[in-house]
Amino acid sequence: MPSSISLHSVSAIAYGFRYRAPLKHTCLFYAHQFQLQPQKFPNLPLFSSSLYRVPNHSFFTGNSLFSRMEHFWSGSSLNRSKEMIEQLQRYGVIKSQKVTEIMQTVDRGLFVPEGTPAYVDSPMSIGYNATISAPHMHAMCLELLEDRLQPGMHTLDVGSGTGYLTACFALMVGPQGRVVGVEHIPELVAWSIKNVEKSAAAPLLKEGSFSLHVGDGRKGWPEHAPYDAIHVGAAAADVPQDLIDQLKPGGRMVIPVGTYFQDLKVIDKNLDGSIRVRTETSVRYVPLTSREAQIKGM
């Protein structure tokens, strides 16, 4: 008999999935002597997921994955964070040494609801029909934006949530740079400020090169535009023109686009102002919408 594996019980990245929004169904997959092939499973976004090719399927067998995953639930936060990052490196999600250093420096445990497993590769509800992304999505976005997160550059994070990825951006660009987080739920902004104040990014918040604001992220934050990097943490039906306008020539935006079927788009603005767009992967994010619609779960 093939063994059945619940996506709720183990790190979904181990099975090759990328997702942002919480899974709404328990989905059992049979994992026995087969290798994931993306073209064979075109409809998997139904489960808030998208396929990601992994180098082999050895992690399905024996107890190697499961024994490693147990470490996420015990031991010090430093050890659990290190283990999480090492897992992401093993599966090829993190390649950059700089991204590794930043994710080791910013403790994800400070940015998730109390009592939740911060170091398991899963998105989590943070209330108000919002989520904090799975660690592999944070790592992917940091990797995609790394060249535009150099010291002194300007960054905009739309839908900054609990502040985790925004804090990572702040440490990437440093005190000479500028990072702005925009979130339209006031309670999340207040919470994110408290989270950052406990993190390695606290001095940047205090000194003013890092700020978190209540606002409609679809309109960006013109005060500190243009931005070298823009990250959007919710899926837009169409790319907001205000965000394109606030992207610096030579800059890059990473944004999920779509409604039910969504793609993570990488948008580069050329020096002449023209736009180049490519698709990185399929994803499933909560929608980029108004505050009222989000609260109602629309």
Radius of gyration: 18 Å
Average residue pLDDT: 80
Termini Cα gap: 41 Å
How many DSSP-defined strands? 11
Oligomer: single chain
Helix proportion of residues, in percent?
25-40%
Catalytic activity: [protein]-L-isoaspartate + S-adenosyl-L-methionine = [protein]-L-isoaspartate alpha-methyl ester + S-adenosyl-L-homocysteine
Protein name: Protein-L-isoaspartate O-methyltransferase
EC number: 2.1.1.77
Family: Belongs to the methyltransferase superfamily. L-isoaspartyl/D-aspartyl protein methyltransferase family.
Which features characterize this protein?
single chain, 298 residues, alpha/beta, 7-stranded mixed β-sheet, two-stranded antiparallel sheet, 11 strands, 21% strand, SAM-dependent_MTases_sf, Protein-L-isoaspartate O-methyltransferase
Question: Describe it for me?
Answer:
The structure is a single chain. Helices cover 27% and strands 21% of the residues. The chain has helices at 64-70, 77-90, 97-105, 135-145, 164-173, 186-197, 202-207, 241-246, 291-296, and strands at 4-6, 28-30, 124-127, 130-132, 154-158, 178-183, 210-214, 227-232, 247-258, 262-269, 275-283. It has 298 residues and is of the alpha/beta class. The termini are far apart. It has 9 helices and 11 strands. A hairpin with a 2-residue loop joins β3 and β4 (130-132). The strands form 3 sheets. It has a 7-stranded mixed sheet with strand order 7-6-5-8-9-10-11. InterPro entries: PCMT, SAM-dependent_MTases_sf. It comes from Anisodus acutangulus.
